[in-house]
């Protein structure tokens, strides 16, 4: 004898369907930025297909610039992604620039070229920036050395003290915009650099 339709059968059918859908979803294409000058990476788009560009770091959504924006039915900027879908097909030789600016890190921005190619479309593109090498970090920090030296010189900090706009330490009187001497004898003004001894 057949039983009437049961909720457990419905749940099992739903789970099987979801599993099949999840397995069929493509993982997408991975793209590692080189940080070197050259041809920007190509992303293949097509009408009726939503292409998501997922970045490995937060971006500035309002800074996204898309050439020919009016030709796209979908342009959505997220915290770490940009989603696009053109209204009409782009020709194989046609390329539209998409510029994305990161909130921090290097490179500060990236340009992609959106193009069309029959039979090829990107549904998901995972973009990552290269990890900074020790040498790249050293070069970036060496650019800060003149600023550090200048702040120490202007402050008149003795060896062992650091220039900083940190809160006042004992021995300073910076009220009424008067010049005061701190405990190291360096002249300071309200709002200006101060010396402080690391403890």
UniProtKB/TrEMBL annotation:
Organism of provenance: Stigmatella aurantiaca (strain DW4/3-1)
Q: InterPro entries attached here?
A: Mxa_paralog_2268
Q: Which domain of life is it from?
A: Bacteria
Q: Which Pfam family, any one of them, does this sequence belong to?
A: DUF2381
Keyword annotations for this protein, in alphabetical order, are: Signal
Q: Where is this region: Disordered?
A: 163-199
Instruction: List the protein's name.
Output: Myxococcus xanthus paralogous family TIGR02268
Renumbered to this chain, the signal peptide range is 1-24
């Amino acid at each position: 004898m057949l039983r009437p339709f049961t909720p457990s059968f419905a749940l099992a059918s739903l789970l099987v369907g979801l599993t099949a859908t999840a397995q069929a979803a493509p993982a997408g294409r991975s793209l590692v930025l080189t940080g070197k000058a050259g041809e920007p990476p190509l992303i293949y788009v097509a009408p009726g297909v939503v292409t998501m560009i997922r970045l490995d770091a937060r971006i500035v959504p309002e800074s996204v610039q898309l050439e020919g924006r009016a030709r796209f039915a979908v342009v959505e900027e997220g915290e770490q992604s940009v989603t696009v879908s053109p209204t009409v097909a782009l020709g194989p030789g046609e390329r539209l620039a998409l510029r994305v600016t990161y909130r921090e890190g290097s490179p500060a921005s990236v340009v992609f070229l959106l193009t069309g190619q029959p039979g090829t479309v990107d549904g998901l593109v995972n973009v990552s920036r290269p990890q900074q090498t020790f040498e790249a970090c050293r070069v970036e920090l060496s650019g800060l050395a003149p600023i550090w030296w200048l702040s120490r010189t202007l402050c008149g900090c003795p060896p062992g003290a650091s220039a900083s706009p940190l809160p006042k330490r004992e021995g300073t009187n910076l009220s009424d915009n008067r010049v005061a001497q701190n405990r190291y004898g360096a002249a300071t003004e309200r709002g200006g650099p101060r010396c402080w001894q690391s403890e």
